[in-house]
Amino acid sequence: MFVNLVCTVLQVAIWVLIAWIVLSYVVIFGRLGWDHPVRRLYDGLTKVIEPVMRPIRNVIPPLRIGGAALDLSPLIVILGITLVSRIICR
Cβ distance 32 to 26 under 8 Å? Predict the structure, then answer.
């Protein structure tokens, strides 16, 4: 029972991260106002996700590609969660 709960939480965490990534593109390219509901959802998820991403960004900074930067921390977190999930949820 406890293992099933942990597995479910890990899967939800992955989906929340994926939603946060998609919302970040919507916010950046959609040019949404500060009071737009999508922007508020993104800001709320950022407050939850940022403490997990910050230590990874300190070790592996975003990659510079011309004038843009590619942040690999969400990918690393998703891979880490997937690895833990594979070990625990067998």
Answer: yes
- Please report the pLDDT score of residue 34 as a whole number: 84
The tokens for 24 are 């970040």
Q: Is the pTM of this model over 0.85?
A: yes
Crossing angle (nearest 10°) for helices 2-30 and 37-59: 110
Q: How many residues does the chain have?
A: 90
Q: Where are the domains of the chain?
A: 2-88
Residue 70 main-chain phi, psi, to 5 deg:
-110, 115
**33-73 pLDDT tens trace:** 888 999 999 999 999 999 999 999 999 999 998 888 899 99
pLDDT reported for residue 30? 84
Q: Report in angstroms the alpha-carbon separations of 4 from 25, 82, 84.
A: 32, 15, 13
d(CA 21, CA 46): 10
